[in-house]
Amino acid sequence: MAGWLAQAALRVILGFQHAVPLLIPDESGYLLAARLLSGGAASDLSWRTFYQGGYPLLIAPAYWLSDDPATVYRLVIVINAMVGAGLLVLACLALRRMGLPKGKAYVLAHVTALIPSAVYYSQFALTDAVLPVIVLGWLLLLHTWLDGGGRSYAVAASATVAFAYSTHARGLILLGVHACLLALVAALRGRTARRDLWPAAAVAAAGAGLGWALNTWVRHQIYPSGVAPLGDWLTIRLTSWDGLAWTLSVATGQLWHAIVATWGLAGVGLVALAALVLRRDAPSADRLVAGATVAAVAGVALATAAALPSEGTVANLAYGRYLACLTPVLLAVGLTVLTRARRAVALRAVLAAAALTLVTMAIVSLHAGERLTRDFFGVFDFPEISFLTWNWGSLNLGLATLTAVLALTLAALVRATAPRGTGLAVIAAACVAAECAIAGVTVVKVSAPWGNALSFATDLTPAGLRPQDRVGISYEGLHWRIWVSHAVQVPTRLVPVDLRRPEGLPPDVTLVVVPWRAGTPSQSTWPAAPKGWWPVISNQNHAGNWVAWRRSPSPAT
Prior knowledge:
- Helix 1 packs antiparallel against helix 5 (69-84) and helix 10 (151-167) runs parallel beside helix 12.
- By secondary structure, the protein is mainly alpha-helical.
- It has a domain at 461-551: D-Maltodextrin-Binding Protein, domain 2 (3-Layer(aba) Sandwich).
- It has helices spanning 2-15, 26-37, 54-59, 61-65, 69-84, 86-97, 102-113, 116-121, 131-146, 151-167, 170-189, 191-222, 230-238, 241-260, 265-278, 284-307, 327-340, 343-368, 371-374, 383-389, 397-417, 423-458, 480-489, and strands at residues 471-473, 495-496, 511-515, 533-539, 546-551.
- It has a five-stranded mixed sheet.
- It contains 23 helices and five strands.
- The chain crosses the membrane at residues 72-93, 129-146, 172-190, 197-214, 255-276, 288-307, 319-338, 345-369, 389-412, 424-444.
- Keywords: Membrane, Transmembrane, Transmembrane helix.
């Protein structure tokens, strides 16, 4: 309990400074769905990426406690922290399953729970704040069932993966892996397993059906005109040679990010899991769950790479967010191998992981070419990598790889030379120190500056925003980042406004946001404004220029 509280407190401290969504439109999509599920107003994010309803179900209570958008956002951070800190508990159970004694398992569970991606994403209203807990819980339930537990564990594993399916598109891959595992168990264990399989399969199907119904309803309410057709990208990429080359290269980039962001330890874990699948003398429960984990890593990387639109960003080439739900599992396995396996076995795993890191780097470099320096680099996509290279303006692929390989080599040397009982302490202390440093520096270098800039760029509060305001938006010429941010701040659905037809303005609209062309007076941004309307705030910023007009008896001073 003390460890869980400490983990939750750290996440709250890091994220409580934020008062507005930063990673948009993702955060806005989840927040608007949560508002809808709490009984609030719908919105319109048509033709943007669809953000599913499972995670908004968890954070919807924040809207029951407050109507203030900033307070709601901070309550979401608290919910994230409480759920995300559960990674400590589950990691401790997983490490105990892998043969570590209680004390060592507890220490390494803290290392696993403090993994930079899990701590970083807990600061935002994103599925990624809770998905690692869901994934690890699913794998533990599967292992308990396969290792002799009752059918209730199989049913619970099915319910968990069904919720993952309702939470994010990655959950569809996990659900597919789960279904294949059930079929494989039926083939291997025959009649004795069928009494467990039927209830588990029924719950998985029913849960997936409920998740589909939930997401269909959310889609109709918030995306009335349709969503971004990511499935089209998936089809194109998987049915052409160029598309397949893109998919394999980008999936490799995701794997590279997961390994380097954990100083090579996730690579050790992945190598160990793959080797375990091939070991015929290993317990069947261990082999099956290891196989499910490897299949999930491969499936998530390939599917997300195929569906990812090409946006001209470095994150298109090497991105860690999609595998972040599985990275804690790989890290926990890698830590176990490094600290528990025989020295010769640990050394072979380290060498294989180092080779895998170099190979993935080479593939990413060949595929990306000049795009690594030419395309847009978003530091918020690479906080751990930027820390490793201390470069916050570009991705240094070679230096990041070299740093990770050197860190892994040092860990292996400590394991090989340290006196018995001290190696784990040194490795754990170094990992925790690095993780805490990354968490703190990321806030200073990434989250806080970006949050301050975006808050200034999109805040409607200076316009005197009131709960009873009805806000109109002139979508034509206004950058999407502005109106998507405003949609979260306004308690009702934004009203489309045609600036050329003021007579069509609904009478209950009290505030209108219009685009502002640089170099023109703010008063000229709405030439056909009805009598009694005046600009009350003008904002020129990196996200786009805009002016807010309010119906009032006299001009604002």
